[in-house]
Amino acid sequence: MTKIAYDRKEQLQQIESGLLPGEQIIAVYDAIGAGTGFLGLTDKRVIVQDKSFVGKRVALTSIPYDKVSAVSVVSNRSFAGSFFSSGAIAIHVGTHTYEVEFRGDDKAHHVHNVILHFITTG
Q1: 64-90: per-residue pLDDT in tens?
Q2: Which of 48, 106, 111, 115 has CA 20 to 30 A from 68's CA?
């Protein structure tokens, strides 16, 4: 079994508890900023924990890769330095965009590449 990249054990366990038969976890990364708790990647879907609901409610949203129309690197800086100068990505699903910010651009780079792989090889 390949090693799963993750930041926090409890987030990994939360994703593990909701796996479909045969589904494999690729990574679970803690998110920073308002609204999002973490993002999980499996070989079937993206899972986003959304904390932006009223009354301290939390949603765990599953996004099948075939529903993702685009994935973006989000930056408030010029791209002159490097493509991944930011630790944030945006996942476009229909008319909704999930923006997730990570501690470190390496995690954003990994998430972007995994999603891009699945949406282009579908």
Answers
A1: 999 999 999 887 655 555 554 458 999
A2: 106
How far apart (Å, rounded) are the C-alpha atoms in residues 110 and 22? 22
Contact between 86 and 73 under an 8 Å Cβ cutoff? The reply is: yes
How buried is residue 68: exposed, middle or buried, by Cβ count under 10 Å (0-12/13-18/19+)?
buried
- Of 2-11, 49-58, 78-87, which range is least confident? 78-87
Q: Are 73 and 93 in contact (CB under 8 A)?
A: no
| Beta-strand pair 36-42/45-50 | antiparallel
Tokens of 26: 């690729």
